[in-house]
Amino acid sequence: MVRNLKDFDLAELKKLSTKPFYGAILFDWIHNKAVENLEQISNLPKTFQEELKASGFVIENLRLVRRLIDEDGTLKYLFDLPDGSKIETVLLDDEGRRTLCVSTQVGCKMGCAFCATGKMKFKRNLSAGEIVDQVIQVEKLEKGKIQNLVYMGMGEPLDNYVNVLKSIRILNDKAGKNIGARHITISTCGIVPGIEKLAEEGLQIRLAVSLHAATDSLRSKLMPINQKYPVKELIRALKAYQKKTGRRLTFEYIMLAGINDSREHARGLLKLLNGLSSHINLIEYNPHARAEFKPSTRKTIKEFWWITTDRGFETAIRYKRGQSIKAACGQLYADN
């Protein structure tokens, strides 16, 4: 059985030998020097390398299929996984401040009406190593460090809970990428049990919730997961999460023309979020061939923003980025 060393955290690698520092050497070369195979690790004894190989241990690597760049500077990478599946990863560079949007699944089970990934057939979860390797490969390709990490690519992160949390701990490790927990965001469509578990982890990461509607009737049409975890139950879990962690929440709200963008919708959103320490992102919808929604006008988005900010809610407008390369929110489909 092949075992990818990128799936192992530092403590696990140290247990592979009676000499724990061998594990520390492995971790350093994999995560800081981006080696592609064991033979490249010059200060690891050949006898130990052979023992690893005999036990099925390898260093697996995502293979770059295509690198696309938008005129606004957004980069998108199409990667091949070892089994032939494909995923997409997106890099946003704001004056040297690099944010990487990583995928956590091949496809997605959630079926959100406005999302291209949701139209894909779910194939499988990514391993912790496959999530981590997106960071390794992009840093290697772009010759620079990732400052911020967002779990907002293909798939629902909390539907792949164990591997996502393990990847965070690996990427947060000071001996490796050392990405600060407060610079890591998990985005969820509202998996209540996952939110409840996350509250107990003791991690200072950020949690973003894709809300998009304040009522069950509308949210269930846009997001089938709402039928399992309705708005009232979701808000209850988020209040408990915030009480436990003390962390502010981010709410993502995609602006769909004539669907969820009226003044009444804005007031309903504010009523729902009352009592929560929160930040609202109003996202300009990114059209794609797999859904018939239209983006709200920028005037409408601005009016919605004004209503929320006038009531004291911190709100930002996220305009389209990466549109020409289908790298924007809801457009990832691994078909380029």
TrEMBL record:
UniProt: S-adenosyl-L-methionine binding residues: 155-156, 187, 210-212, 286
Keyword Iron-sulfur recorded: yes
PROSITE patterns xref list: RADICAL_SAM
Keywords, alphabetical: 4Fe-4S, Cytoplasm, Disulfide bond, Iron, Iron-sulfur, Metal-binding, Methyltransferase, rRNA processing, S-adenosyl-L-methionine, Transferase, tRNA processing
Active-site annotation: 88, 329
Subcellular location field: Cytoplasm
InterPro entries in the record: Aldolase_TIM (IPR013785), Elp3/MiaA/NifB-like_rSAM (IPR006638), Methyltransferase_A (IPR040072), RlmN_N (IPR048641), RNA_MTrfase_RlmN (IPR027492), rRNA_lsu_MTrfase_RlmN/Cfr (IPR004383), rSAM (IPR007197), rSAM_sf (IPR058240)
Gene Ontology CC: cytoplasm
Cofactor or coenzyme needed: [4Fe-4S] cluster
GO biological process: rRNA base methylation; tRNA methylation
Positions annotated to bind [4Fe-4S] cluster: 108, 112, 115
Cofactor note: Binds 1 [4Fe-4S] cluster. The cluster is coordinated with 3 cysteines and an exchangeable S-adenosyl-L-methionine.
Catalyzed reactions per annotation: adenosine(2503) in 23S rRNA + 2 reduced [2Fe-2S]-[ferredoxin] + 2 S-adenosyl-L-methionine = 2-methyladenosine(2503) in 23S rRNA + 5'-deoxyadenosine + L-methionine + 2 oxidized [2Fe-2S]-[ferredoxin] + S-adenosyl-L-homocysteine; adenosine(37) in tRNA + 2 reduced [2Fe-2S]-[ferredoxin] + 2 S-adenosyl-L-methionine = 2-methyladenosine(37) in tRNA + 5'-deoxyadenosine + L-methionine + 2 oxidized [2Fe-2S]-[ferredoxin] + S-adenosyl-L-homocysteine
Domain Radical SAM core, chain residue ranges per copy: 94-326
EC numbers: 2.1.1.192
MF-aspect GO terms: 4 iron, 4 sulfur cluster binding; metal ion binding; rRNA (adenine(2503)-C2-)-methyltransferase activity; rRNA binding; tRNA (adenine(37)-C2)-methyltransferase activity; tRNA binding
Functional description taken from the UniProt entry: Specifically methylates position 2 of adenine 2503 in 23S rRNA and position 2 of adenine 37 in tRNAs.
Additional observations: Reaction proceeds by a ping-pong mechanism involving intermediate methylation of a conserved cysteine residue.
Recorded family membership: Belongs to the radical SAM superfamily. RlmN family.
Protein name in UniProt: Probable dual-specificity RNA methyltransferase RlmN
Organism: Candidatus Termititenax dinenymphae
Gene encoding the protein: rlmN
